[in-house]
Amino acid sequence: MTTRPITAAVDGTTESLAALAWAGREAVRRDLALRVVHAWRWEPHEAITVDRDGQERWAREALAEAVRGVSERHPGLEVATDLVEGAPVDTLVGAAEHAETLVLGSRGHGAVVGFLLGSVGQQVIVGSPRPVVLVRAEDGPAGEAAGREVVVGQQGTPEDSAEVLRFAFETAAARGATLRAVRAWALPPLYAYSPGSLKLLDEAGGMEPYETKALAAALEPWRERFPDVPVVQHVEMGSAGQALLSVARRAQLMVVGRRARRTAVGARIGSVAHGVLHHAHCPVAVVPHK
């Protein structure tokens, strides 16, 4: 079986260099190779006298400089580079197909924690068949200190959340971190009540015990597969986004799922992923559901 690398996208910005540093650390933890991708396009402008070859040379030099830094920090890490001329979204989605994880930089809100998710980032998340991690310029090794948890949102059935939980458990195992699994619940609208559903709730002892059992059932196969990962079950009444953000301060990584959909006004990644990306202070991994 071919081993996929951790892939980082760089464009010379501070945010992309932070993403590259995060990807390098993750590749070392998982004993994987690192692939560094830079998408560029020649854009002639009357104020810039450099020709196409000159711009390509600049891009190649910037890529080499970025890789030099991560290679010096991790001398045993296998690093490959890929300079691609093309549209950023198409290039990065294509790179994600061959990656274990795609890591992108994203601008922070300055004094307010969270991300400013531009159109490229959102389109890549929507189109990527693999997990995408968003990293801000402020995210560094200090945020991965001992005691920080990997926090994952669990929704629906065990099958619905299998890929999200797989990624979260693998990440927690590689980091020696505690995994906090969060499941939110709300009172169903009156029309959702039925004799069958009421019977299930009665047997479970009420809504919160029912949701607690549902979370435990989703976690069970992964706890068996990763017995050394400490797990905290967190069940909270409210929206999923609110529940996740309520524990974000203790997180070194937040993991959420997404079912992307396209509308007349563009791609959408779902309210939970959108809310967490815009308000969490730590790196956020968005994992596509199968």
UniProtKB/TrEMBL annotation:
Source domain of life: Bacteria
Transmembrane region(s): none
Residue span(s) of domain UspA: 4-136, 150-288
Family: Belongs to the universal stress protein A family.
Protein name in the entry: Universal stress protein
Source species taxonomy: Bacteria, Bacillati, Actinomycetota, Actinomycetes, Kitasatosporales
